[in-house]
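Worked Example 4.2. Consider the chain below.
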Amino acid sequence: MRHGPAAVVALAILLSAGCTPSHAPAAVSASTAASTAATPTATPSPTPVAPSTTPYRSPEDRFLLHNKIYSAGRIPAVPCKVPQIALRTQKQVQQYANAMLVCLDRAWRPMVARAQAEYFAATVYTVKQGARTACGPFRGKYAGFYCATNFGIYLDWQQFVEDGDRDRVYAAADLQFAFAHEFGHHVQELVQISSYFDIRWSAATGPARLEQMRRHELQASCFASAFLGANQQTLDLRGVKLQDYRQAAYSGDDDAPGTPRDHGSRQSSTAWAKAAFQAKSPSACDTWVAPAKRVT
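Applying the procedure from the previous section yields the following structure tokens:
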């Protein structure tokens, strides 16, 4: 069953999926310097201390605006062997998603290490609407979501099957981007972006809350496009398949009138995807420092 463009990018955070966070936002450990007793001298006048040239950053700014993942460099091109199969059954969608998971794990693991964060592997589950997950029942208009409770990526497999042979290339490109987006949320969780997003989201209301959502979702899509750009050759993103990836990556909230504006407009989605695909790096994905006009 082919789904519309708005369903390509799945709702992937616990708060917006109607679940409560499984854990409190990670605490930031403040570094403390050991103090030593000064030995009295004949001239006790204090030694001048040069002022710090590094501006103070709150934990929120440190992990959202200045996260080390942005300076981790280019995402490596890794051996990606996705199966050349039809996507018609749950088993086939699971097989394809498992192969994508191997590629994403190999590419992002060293990036997370460079960001000085601990790496935990994700798991993919192909389910139907109404299925039980570690974050509650799977329901809603979206094709998948990320659950931090068990580092699980849940996909509604029926949303990713092809309609026929003519749809096969799009089905593969669609699944690649949607899955890479959900893995982008996994990266956000590992490097503590999600923890501080939760704080911002909880403190905001109305339009301000939707803007925080868009920053989070556009960044996950941006991480996805950076990975796909870095691995364009091994994933064979060329010709028609490249066009189909763009159709999935560039679609936005305004492609589905009447839906919440929580993932980003076509204009914003396109701009972040293009920049990341070319940069092949999360350096192009700091949505938290961007002005509001870039996250519409």
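The CA atoms of residues 143 and 197 lie 22 Å apart. The beta strands are 123-127, 132-133, 136-137, 144-147, 152-156. Compare this with Example 4.1 before moving on.
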